[in-house]
């Protein structure tokens, strides 16, 4: 990440345990949320529970006559079962195919006629739908979204057509993309019990055997009011939005949320390696170290694992969070450069286990093994020599500045509160996270570098480039949907 993104949105979108880790230095117990402005005219975020158990989150901002409307569901690829991987994403596509009142394709046409833009997204942890519309059209959009949430309905013929679109999406965005294919294999190898081992798009064999009733059953099971949150940000009156929500979403029948099984990842017993051979111009290497996940943002209740996850977030930023960061200086600059590009990511915020990822692209004449060795050498350097306070202050200042800047975006604010709700965090999670990251010390960063970057917690995935003329040839598939 060469540019600094809004912190909480970045961590939420990027998706353990060592044996008996020694405790790190505790985060200051008096850490409080940083006093970050939302905008010059935004009111505080307010949360309500509708009569059927659905959550409503609203923030008024009167600067422009527009509003962002989102529906977040606490269900994603991690809630699938073996044999139906990809069903959460396929359902996202099918949600645009109608209801008893709306014909296939009409949802998007109606939103466009209202002057709005819309889309959807699926991750391991959640599924979301959104529309940005003129604020005086909010009632119409809420009625449309509540209708398809409760009454999604389509003929089998529509499913068969859309399934081919999803399969083509897998071919183009994973199977024909060597680096995407490599990352798929990294997660499939790093995790055994955790559902994070399955790709969000699904395995092709599962898509081949997926049925319309599999998708309908997934909708009935998980699209229940108590498993969803409506987020509205923009030029709105909070009480009016609440009344509209009760008239639309509040009328959906309440049902129980299914019980989730705790699919705990067992401790890794040794280094794992996987190689991927694919037509490519350059090699690629990805290192994934098992890491603790961040579950708690209350300084008084945080565990040692939570504190270590904070320090790993800071370490990732020190390694690649800005132009000229440690990895770039060490691997991509100077006459001894070994990599054309590098990246680090602390994938520690989600409903599943954490993974600290390092990526590198070998320079011409250099090997993936040389890049792997150089990446590990930088981790060893931090473990041996530590980091300095000036480095920490730089990334903390950048986080603060970028967060304030991004709060001018309705989309960014909706993403922040929606992803916070999915993870069971408070609505001011980004403020709390920034405040807690501000307390991380150089000693804590050095301690996690010593504790987690060991062979017993490492999975290495290496791309072995094959000649480009062996690229798989196939007939053009169906046009891809614009859905994420």
UniProtKB/TrEMBL annotation:
Its cofactor is Zn(2+). GO terms for molecular function: metal ion binding; metalloendopeptidase activity. GO terms for biological process: proteolysis. Residues 58-201 form the Peptidase M16 N-terminal domain. The keyword Hydrolase applies. Keywords: Hydrolase, Protease, Signal. It comes from the Bacteria. Residues 209-398 form the Peptidase M16 C-terminal domain. Residues 1-18 form the signal peptide. InterPro entries: Metalloenz_LuxS/M16, MPP/UQCRC_Complex, Pept_M16_N, Pept_M16_Zn_BS, Peptidase_M16_C. PANTHER family: METALLOPROTEASE, MITOCHONDRIAL-PROCESSING PEPTIDASE SUBUNIT ALPHA. Belongs to the peptidase M16 family. This is Zinc protease. It comes from Giesbergeria anulus. The lineage of its organism: Bacteria, Pseudomonadati, Pseudomonadota, Betaproteobacteria, Burkholderiales.
